[in-house]
């Protein structure tokens, strides 16, 4: 469910990665090649990007399918950035949250996306939600599993965790509370990307000499340099380095 992509590198027009490749994120909205759950990602989309000299990203999000939005095509043609995150959404359950449920979620310098589903939502995640302060619950972006996952991640970021720990610990907590959940998370602050492979596909294409890395649900072309991330793995990446760390489930 859902497809997403994050990029760090020399500034490029957003369309270079989001719509021009043969198997781009836009095409994945109706014809993903490696998506294990769901078939069409037409329940919203979004892109967040960083402008030079500004640590707080801008976002463009909509509730409908990306292929029908001509403004998105115009925007990605002219906007250039050296760091961005984009996603197309396949809803977990019917709902009225619309654009608010579309990734990327954002706060301060961070952009976040969740590809997957919290199993037995919302009942299984109730104890984790109850542990959040009421103020943070009232600030949930939407009434969806992804919005709660983002709240759990954001809380750790604000408490000072690095981006890898901020993803890994909520994944462990959620997998314990709701076994069988699919928790592929993607996070960037414009300088680093962190991602988890937990129940669905995750790939990366690294070009250290060029200072360029792409992390995505699936390859957007047939470049032989794409590498698949093993399931139950945390990926952290900068423009010149990629590290993979195995993740273990928390014992009951």
Automatic annotation (TrEMBL):
CDD domains: YafJ. Pathway: Amino-acid biosynthesis; ergothioneine biosynthesis. The keyword Hydrolase applies. InterPro entries: EgtC, EgtC-like, EgtC_Actinobacteria, Gamma-glu_amide_hydrolase, GATase_2_dom, Ntn_hydrolases_N. It is an enzyme of class 3 (hydrolase). Gene3D superfamilies: Glutamine Phosphoribosylpyrophosphate, subunit 1, domain 1. Keywords: Glutamine amidotransferase, Hydrolase. It holds the Pfam family GATase_4. SUPFAM superfamilies: N-terminal nucleophile aminohydrolases (Ntn hydrolases). It catalyses: gamma-L-glutamyl-hercynylcysteine S-oxide + H2O = S-(hercyn-2-yl)-L-cysteine S-oxide + L-glutamate. Residues 2-252 form the Glutamine amidotransferase type-2 domain. Its EC number is 3.5.1.118. HAMAP family: EgtC. Catalyzes the hydrolysis of the gamma-glutamyl amide bond of hercynyl-gamma-L-glutamyl-L-cysteine sulfoxide to produce hercynylcysteine sulfoxide, a step in the biosynthesis pathway of ergothioneine. This is Gamma-glutamyl-hercynylcysteine sulfoxide hydrolase. It comes from Streptomyces katrae.
